[in-house]
Amino acid sequence: MRRFPFVPRCPGEPAPEFEQLRREEPVSKVTFPTGDTAWLVTTYEDNKTVMGDQRFSRAHTTRPGAPRLQPIPPDPNSMFSMDPPEHTRLRRLVSPAFNNRRTAALRPVIEREVDLLVAALKETGPPADLVSLFARRLPITVICELLGVPAADRDTIAGFVDVLLSLTQYPPEQVAATRAELKRYLAGLIADRRADPRDDLVSELIAMRDSGDRLSEDELVMLGATVLTGGFLSTASEIALSFLCLFRHPAELERLRADPGLLPTAVDELLRYNALTTGGGLLRIATEDVKLGNVTIAAGEAVLPAISSANRDPSVFHDPDLFDVGREDNPHLTFGHGMHYCLGARLARLELEIALAGMLRGLPEVRLAVPVEELRPQGGHLIRGLPELPVTW
């Protein structure tokens, strides 16, 4: 039985095992660092099935003794960890807070922050680390601005998220303590906004009702935690991997520089092409025996959709290993599928597009300062970003 996660040959690229498994064993048993086992699903259609079929449950992953990928079980009060009808109710309540209006209102915030970060890079001078000085700073600023987290607390929040998305980097006790600390912080923020409402997402969620229904205190806290964990590190890592991908494909980078109108398709291609996490989707538990491909998954067994593999499936994507900033037909699964489709997808796309546009405009000669072979992905972590990305210009 294979050990999971697999080790990629290059940051941002899916590990070679995924391609082999898609061809030879598309539903295969793997062992996690926790010692638990799961079925790894590698084709596009099977990924959509696992993410869209309610017989594969997120809520069951919170039960005592359930198989898990990360050091501690998921929190049952998180929307990530719910099935219908609880998930349906919560998503209906919170979806308006992530609509086009609120995302559009963040555009000037993102543009201003990108301009400030690019100016700071110029002032610092080359070489510079694009991860610490740009890729991490932009999304933590945006997500804290969205929620209403004070600027002085942003580094603390970023540190919490780094620990919470660990696989083997931190011991389970530290991960559990960090989750509790983040929840205490958010409970304090909610209490403050309840007494003094402002124009931020936390205040809006506190006031939100639907036919007399409202979010409970635990739901408010966990929604804040979900927004922070989903909106910071994944976006930061995607920004860094996107620049690395463009540096590795200089002809496509030149196309983008020559025609900024390609940015929207380039963003979706980067989201498809980059292998952002160890596998991709959220772990699920089969609630009954389910036949998937040639395998019968027994009730109680875990299933992991490998989105980074699905996004390279040649039955769906023409020449899937080709990076093409003009790719039009691009139904990638990076934001998921079905009921757990990412609520922050619009915001993530907007941040990535503005980050690319601002950097290419402000530092048109930016390039790698070290050979690609010297770069290593983040180890021991669910998110396979880059610890650093040295650039020059």
From TrEMBL:
Keywords: Heme, Iron, Metal-binding, Monooxygenase, Oxidoreductase. GO terms for molecular function: heme binding; iron ion binding; monooxygenase activity; oxidoreductase activity, acting on paired donors, with incorporation or reduction of molecular oxygen. InterPro entries: Cyt_P450, Cyt_P450_B, Cyt_P450_CS, Cyt_P450_sf. Residues 57-77 are annotated as: Disordered. SUPFAM superfamilies: Cytochrome P450. The keyword Iron applies. Pfam families: p450. The keyword Iron applies. This is Cytochrome P450.
